[in-house]
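REVIEWER CHECKLIST
Item 1: Sequence provided? yes
Item 2: Single chain? yes
Item 3: Sequence as submitted:
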Amino acid sequence: MTLKALLDQLFRSHHQELLRFAGQRAGDAAEDLVQLSFLRLLQHPDIGTIANHRAYLYKLTANAVIDHHRKAAVRAQYHADLDEIDEVPSLAPCPETVLHHRQMLERCLQALDALPPLPRTVFLLHRFDGLTYPQIAKLLGLSRSSVERHFYTALEHCFAASLAQVTSSV
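Item 4: Structure as written out by the authors:
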């Protein structure tokens, strides 16, 4: 018997019973699982050596049902994880907060522009470049106490400008 004739005979003889078998275990996916079983049968290196084709097809179908349920469980877990992710609050600030911080930064930059050059430079070196007072003192040729004084002058100026803006907007 040719391979094509054997497959045709096996399909006609066992398709409906395999469909019922898979339907009891996998519902609507039964047709796809039975077709998958026949495809796996085709992948066997020598179909003629199988002693009981019917039993082999049942085993292939049972395995396909098991695989189907495993994949469904993984999909369900994946979707459950996605649902949990949707419930996690965002750490990103709301647009109003972002706007408020931008406005505060803009006011601070304007206040810095109004400062004399030396306090502004000391403030920028310390706050934005991360230099320490001794490093700034060495860089600018000043004493440490002078650097501290210039920094606090700039800081007070920025604070006063922010406070003036808050009181004028209220």
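Item 5: Key structural point noted by reviewer: The CA atoms of residues 65 and 108 lie 66 Å apart.
Item 6: Recommendation: ____
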